[in-house]
Amino acid sequence: MRLAVLASGTGSIYKAIVDANIDVAVVLVDRPCAAIDLANTNQTPCITVERTQFGPEFDRTKFSCDVVAALTEFNIDVVAMAGFGTVLDAPFFEAYEGRVLNTHPALLPSFPGWHGVRDALRRGVKITGCTVHIATLDVDEGPILAQAAVAVFDDDNEATLHERIKSTERHLYPDTIKKFLTDMEAHT
Ligand code: GRF
Questions:
Q1: Which residues are catalytically annotated?
Q2: Which ligand 1 atom sits nearest the alpha carbon of residue 104?
Q3: pLDDT digits (tens, 9 = 90+) for 93-113
Q4: pTM of the model
């Protein structure tokens, strides 16, 4: 199974995937970010499909087609989103239907969207966590594969809570990816 990782942020979730000895065929980023350096260090091909527009003029469908075109050259079977900052559109989910994984820093269906950590904190929950799920066109709606709970402390801010959640994601996500890849291999 050939895995692509899509990242935009610090790359710490991508690093956890690599540290778990999961082979990554290609890393794709949508902006300059730390994942590029990590891919270079790992001698893993890294493609940038740069997103240059963030307003209403952004052509999400074209961007999604560009992502698919870039990945097609690498014969990718499964895509793992690892903090990718662009919501992708139908052409991407049609190309990789049922084969896109995502980790979300909250216990879905609670607190979907970009601010899952902040929203949980503001709501005053005492337990939040992370969710690994199959990503679909409907953001944060796909079938749930795994979840883990994380305690919220009284003195948490968004950064401290997110870091505690990520330390759980760094185990849960690679474990779930491994299982998903093994299951897929068994069914092909
Ligand atoms: C993770 O919390 C993930 O759930 C969210 O983005 C974060 C990525 O972390 N989608 P990093 O940039 O890899 O450190």
A1: 104
A2: 4
A3: 999 999 999 999 999 999 999
A4: 0.95
Residue with tokens 């990945």: 71
* 127 to 142, 146, 162: CA distances (angstroms): 22, 16, 13
Burial class of 32 by CB neighbour count within 10 A (0 to 12, 13 to 18, 19+): exposed
Measured distance between the N- and C-terminal CA atoms of the chain, rounded to whole angstroms = 10
Pocket probe mutation, ligand 1, options 169, 170, 176, 177, max atoms within 8 Å of Cβ: 169
Q: What does the block give as tokens for 153?
A: 């402390």
Alpha-carbon distances of 42 from 25, 26, 35, rounded to whole Å: 11, 11, 10
pLDDT digits (tens, 9 = 90+) for 157-178: 999 999 999 999 999 999 999 9
Does residue 131 line the site of ligand 1, with CB under 6 A?
no
* Side-chain half-sphere exposure of 11, counting CA atoms within 13 A: 20
Q: Of all protein residues, whose CA lies closest to atom 5 belonging to ligand 1? A: 83
Which regions of the chain does DSSP assign to beta strands (E)?
3-7, 26-29, 46-48, 78-81, 100-104, 127-134, 144-151
Measured in angstroms, how far is the CA atom of residue 14 from the centroid of ligand 1? Answer: 9
